[in-house]
Amino acid sequence: MDRLPINHLERPAYIGKRVHRSEDRALLMGQGQFVDDLKLPQVLFSALLRSPHGHARINTIDVTNARALKGVHAVYLYSDLPESARRRLPMSIPNPLIRHVMTQELLASSEVCYVGEPVAFVVAESRYVAEDACLLIDVDYDILGAAGDPLAALEKDASLAHTSAKDNLIAQLPLSYGDMDQAFAKATHCVEEKFWQNRGSAHPMEGRGYAAEYHAVTGQLTIWSSGQTPHLEKKTIVDMLAWDPERLRIIHNDVGGGFGPKAIFYPEQALVAIAAWQLQRPVKWIEDRREHFVSSSQERDQYWEMRLALDAQGKILGLKLVMTHDNGAYLQWGVILPYIGVTTTPGPYVVPAMDVTLRMVCTNKGPTSPVRGAGRPQAVFAMERMMDRAARMLGIDRAEMRRRNFVQPEQMPYAVGFIYRDGKPMIYDSGDYPKCQKMALEQINYAGFAARKAAARKEGRYIGIGMANFVEGTGLGPFEGATVRIQQNGRVGILTAVSSQGQGHKTTFAQICADQLGIPMEMIDVIVADTNAMSMGIGTFACRITVTAGNSVYLAAKAVRTKIERLAAFLLECKTEEVEVKDGITYVRGSPERCKTFSELARVAQGIPGFSFPEGVTNGLEDTQYFSPTQAAYCNGTAAVEIELDRDTGQMRFLKYVMVHDAGRIINPLIVDGQIQGGAAHGIGNATLEWMRYDDQGQPITTNFGEYLLPGAGDVPRLDMLHLESLSPLNPLGVKGVGEGGTIPAAAAIIAAIDDAIDDPNVFLKEAPMPPPRLFEIMRDAGIYERERQTRMAVVKAGLRT
Amino acid sequence: MKPAQFKYHLPSTLDEALELLGTLENAKILAGGQSLLPMMNFRFVMPDHLIDLNMVSELQCIEVNPVSIRIGAMTRQHAIHVSPIVRQFTPLVVEAYDNVSHRQIRNRGTYGGSLCHLDPSSEQPCFTAALDGVIVVASRRGNREIPIAEWAAMYMTPSIETDELMTGVRLAIWPPGHGWCFEEYARRHGDYAIVGVAVLVLLNEARHIKRLSVAICGIDAAPVRLTRAEEELVGHEAGDEAINRICEITKTIENVMEDAHHSADYRRHLMQVLTGRAMRKAFDRAIPGGF
Amino acid sequence: MDSKVISLVVNGQHFEKEVETRHSLGDFLRNDLGLTGTHYGCEHGVCGACTVLVDGCSVRSCLMLAVQSDKTAVTTIEGLANEDGSLSELQLAFRECHSLQCGFCTPGMLTTLTELLRENMNPTEAEVRERINGNLCRCTGYQPIIDAALLAASRLLDKHRAAVTAPRS
Fold first, then answer.
1. Closest approach of chain B CAs to the CA of C82, in angstroms?
2. Which of A376, B123, C98, C151 could pair with A344 as two cysteines, CB 3.0-4.6 Å apart?
3. Residue B2 falls inside a structural domain
4. Rounded Cα gap, residues A576 and A395, in angstroms
5. Does residue B240 sit at the A interface (CB-CB below 8 Å)?
6. Domain holding B14: CATH number?
7. A269 to chain B nearest CA, in Å?
């Protein structure tokens, strides 16, 4: 495996430096190109009529008045779609255990299965008029029984989420390794607990959006998208519209955040394309926030039932898990999301035997797919709470409980026992988990906490500390490609189909490339997210881009450097080893006047019409690589959080927030820190604020930002971040992903800290989110307020000041 | 999320506005727009006519009189928040606005708009109740005055006729040296109060309560004045016993609202907690040298 | 269709346009004037991405009708750079501190902080945090934005002090 040598260049390397982003200037000047910013001449606007019911049959739809409204160009129903589009969306990630494959139609043909499901598509002169027209569409529904709660949906006479299905069980997956019977037979202690968790959505600040333009003369269809997976979008449009792939181009310009939901394919993208093609005018659809709440994918309820077998010292012998996952009405991303969750459960601990039953349930709620953390925050919450529970039961310190169970660094590479979601055995490649926790606890002064807690209590204040460890599989395959090309003007082009939603990929790629070619970053132009740039691609999710495309850039740049050296040697009539490459000029070492610029070399490599190349010269100064990882690269981290709890209101505030993260080699510390701070904000939201709620008929209860609470600046503290760099042996750069690490342990650590602040033997928090009203109920039911009131009354009676 | 069509009217005087209001059907007043426009964007509300009062300058003022301050209905919340008059004479109001939403909203939002919107969780009706606010409304038929206690007809509906508009509010001035506190619990700073408490207290030299006003929002459609507690506690010493007594009295309030997010029980609990805290801070401010 | 002709100044340039009365100020800026720097994230006044300055005051352009901006001076993100096109101190600080990732909330952050720094030349961290509490960001976790505001404030203050104490020529 090709290692990146350190100190291999004369010039200071860009890799590892806090390089300011090349993306920023345009965005700071208000010159971003988000999909709604595109100025397409003659563009038409669109809106959707969506189902107001969780589950209903469509009897009739009358669009007469809508079509007649001035300014309306078209109203589409299912029956108006071209034949290729009158089918369900392809399932992105199939699995033979899925009993009933149910993906969405572009528009509902006869049955709607969630509030927000598209029923009609209106194209008009303005969004205002399109929404006017939607109000004029008359739909006659028969309301059907809805499947609400996933546990209730599995009961014998539960309402069906889809009338065409036998029941609501999408899939039941057994996963196991090791000898569970032995584990429980040998166990000295057994901890049992049930957890309930709800995640909600990513809510990027920019909703979804698509704009399509069709040129009748060439047959070219171009779609701009606020998405994460250009090639997946392309593949799906090819299928749904029966389109020639060579006449279809998907481009993502600026995307205002993704975090997962924008990675799947949605009906609106195909509808916009169909309309643009048929009306022969550009058409765009821009999601508003109300739509985002109901129709962009989210994560939903999960029920975790865990049994942990421990020996007398608290070492884990085995773990039994039954996890019930609420999938919502449709299954776009297969079983991946909950699968990641259950396989993440062992985390950094040695779990010799594990037995999992994963049940995925269909309900009449909106679509689900991975949201930042992708199922891992739930696993970490459940496992870390179990560790705290076990520590309490055994009378061991919580940190010590974890220390006794860590996978040790000398055990790397460590086979967990499962097959991971990438289809390969789960083998942790590198990482020092004990060191990570140790650093975090030292940084937060865990040792001194007991004294701090006691001092606070004397002042009538309640503080608590919580910790959580995680291991995350990143850098998933199968590949992501990049081309590095020396242009005839001497500038260097990096071309990829990678989609960015704020991660600064353009900057990171330029750093990697600049180091290999010995040039300043300003000489590089980076093209991303254009399906014309690369013929194949997968997408931006699961912290995979730096590992895949980053290494493709590295390998392609290295290959180009070799070509540069060889061609220069040929033209300068010297040996390859004598060629120096610096700032876009090649020269013979010791004789700088014998030189060729990148531009000159590129022009030679372009060829002269009719002439054969001499021996040793090949066409083009470019190279394309599709780095394909053999398996995931596992990053890890520890969050340690100290909070103060206002027990009367249930409100907590942060005192300290420490995060130690190991993502292998850091290409740009500025960007890495930004990902962790930003990721933590999502986790903080998940801990006490964000809760996407539905009633038992599939009606969403939280449908605006007044009811669904996102963390603001007052809710997110400054993180105290430390980094480790355990290089991954699985890729040349030694990198691992970092985008979700801030989120994954956050809710677990925060809720553990709240639990610690309550400090009551009758209270053990096992739900996430844990919002103040719920915390109040728990404390009330444990008698905490009543006891305090009696104490206060007694003090007053005795004439003392409280 | 775009609003439905409407006809837009921009009167420049109060008389013009009243004339429009008296003749148009299904008309709504556009004040700050910070509550109305979101509802129109969601199409929860679809008026045929919008009467924009932002050019009626006579509705924007902050004046002080011997016993009251008068605030025009269209006065911007930010202007009230930073007004030296308000700070000097009704400091409770300033502390309330510390909790109201965010600067961008306060720059446009109006006091009158909030009182007419009458969200149970809103801070502005609450301090108005504590300060014995008197609301002045006008129509082509003339003016009338409505004490804040009679202002709410029902949930989010003031007792104002369709041809009337609010012109301003008079708030009572308490003597210098009075104690005040606006205390609320909100999930995030700037959010609507789940429960909010406004306290005004006047003590004599012996630190006994001469006068007390306590208004609570977030438990009913309109802010609730604890009139029974206010009467009972006159003469009591400013201290823990008084605080405990008033907290016990809050428990006797029978109707406490609830919604999907915050139960009645939680609101009751907050009411006690926040009343206690607000009383403590108000005493602290009423006593030279602190509580 | 109910419409009105409005006359206003945007980023120093005068416009006279007919606009439908139900169109929001943000939609007018984006669609009628082509100033797409101002972004819509929620259209119900919570996210703050649409914040612009109207007569120097920060307002949500989704909660103001375009017709209400008649005879006002509006500043959007496109109007915040220096006259010669160079980035302002605040914009430079944003770049240095990595205060933007996707850039969607950035217009609202910049206009809001511009108002703050005009009113308060030496804000504390708490004051900055409080001021942007009405601007949601899903990328940065806010700390880099706060750091940039404090950095810009200290630089502007230095410049101001230097100008004030400079010897008269």
1. 24
2. A376
3. no
4. 67
5. yes
6. 3.30.43.10
7. 19
ipTM: 0.97
Interface of A with B in 125-184 (CB under 8 A): 127-128, 131-132, 135
Q: Which domain holds residue B214?
A: 179-285
Point out the domain boundary residue: B130, B149, B172. Answer: B172
| pLDDT, position B290 | 83
Report d(CA A128, CA A142) in Å as an integer.
29
Q: How far is C158 from chain A (nearest CA, A)?
A: 23
Structure tokens at A306: 């865990």
Query: Same domain for B44 and B83?
Result: no
Q: What is the CATH number of the domain that holds B122?
A: 3.30.465.10
**A86's tokens:** 């009158």
Return the pLDDT at A8: 45
Kindly report the CA angle at C155 between C153 and C158, in degrees rounded to 5?
110
| Predicted confidence (pLDDT) per residue in C70-89, tens digit | 999 999 999 999 999 999 99
Q: Give the mean model confidence (pLDDT) for residues C99-120.
A: 98
Q: B262 in helix, strand or coil?
A: coil
Q: What is the pTM of this model?
A: 0.96
Residue in B188, B262, B266 closest to A715 by CB = B188
What is the distance in angstroms between the Cα of C164 and the nearest Cα belonging to chain A?
29
Distance CA B5, CA C68 (A): 16
Same domain flag for B157 and B263: no
Is some CB atom of chain C closer than 8 A to the CB atom of A163? no
B132 falls within a domain:
yes
pLDDT at A6: 45
**Architecture per CATH, C89-164:** Orthogonal Bundle (1.10)
Residue B28 lies in a domain: yes
**Whole-angstrom Cα distance, residue A607 to residue A197?**
62
Domains of chain A as residue ranges with CATH: 24-32+477-627 (3.30.365.10), 35-144+208-255+261-295 (3.90.1170.50), 298-419+426-475+630-784 (3.30.365.10)
Closest CB from A679, A705, A719 relative to C42: A705
What is the token pair recorded at B58? 């006579």
Ranges of CATH 3.10.20.30 domains, chain C: 3-79
Question: Mutate which of C75, C104, C131 to test chain A, going by most A C-beta atoms within 10 A?
Answer: C104
The token duo for B144 is 């009338």
| Number of inter-chain CB pairs under 8 A, A vs C | 175
Q: What is the pLDDT along chain B (291 residues), one digit of tens a residue?
A: 999 999 999 999 999 999 999 999 999 999 999 999 999 999 999 999 999 999 999 999 999 999 999 999 999 999 999 999 999 999 999 999 999 999 999 999 999 999 999 999 999 999 999 999 999 999 999 999 999 999 999 999 999 999 999 999 999 999 999 999 999 999 999 999 999 999 999 999 999 999 999 999 999 999 999 999 999 999 999 999 999 999 999 999 999 999 989 999 999 999 999 999 999 999 999 998 887
Q: Please tell me the distance from the alpha carbon of residue A475 to that of residue A632, in angstroms, as a whole number.
A: 5
Contacting subunits of A (3+ beta carbon pairs below 8 A): B, C
Could you say which residues of chain A have pLDDT below 70? 1-12, 800-802
pLDDT value, residue C84: 93
Of residues A132, A711, A777, nearest to B4 (C-beta): A132
Share of chain C above pLDDT 70, in %: 99
Query: Does the distance separating the beta carbons of A777 and B263 come in below 8 Å?
Result: yes
Task: Please tell me whether residue B261 adopts helix, strand or coil conformation.
Answer: coil
Is residue B167 located within the same domain as residue B92?
yes
Report the C-alpha gap between A260 and A743 in whole angstroms: 13
Residues with Cβ < 8 Å from A771, sequence gap 6 or more?
A: A650, A688, A689, A691, B187
Class of domain C3-79 (CATH, top level): alpha beta
pLDDT, position B80: 98
What is the three-class DSSP state of A390? helix
Pairing relationship of beta strands C13-20 and C3-10 according to DSSP bridges: antiparallel
Nearest chain B residue to A694 by CA distance is: B260
B8 with C65: Cβ contact below 8 A: yes
Residues of chain C with CATH 1.10.150.120: 89-164
Task: Find the CB nearest B102 among C21, C43, C134.
Answer: C134
- Among B104, B121, B237, B240, most A C-beta atoms within 10 A, so best to mutate, is B240
Tell me the chain C residues in contact with residue B30 when contact means C-beta distances shorter than 8 Å.
Answer: 65
Nearest to A289 among C42, C81, C142 (CB): C42
State the smallest CA–CA distance between residue C79 and chain B in angstroms: 18
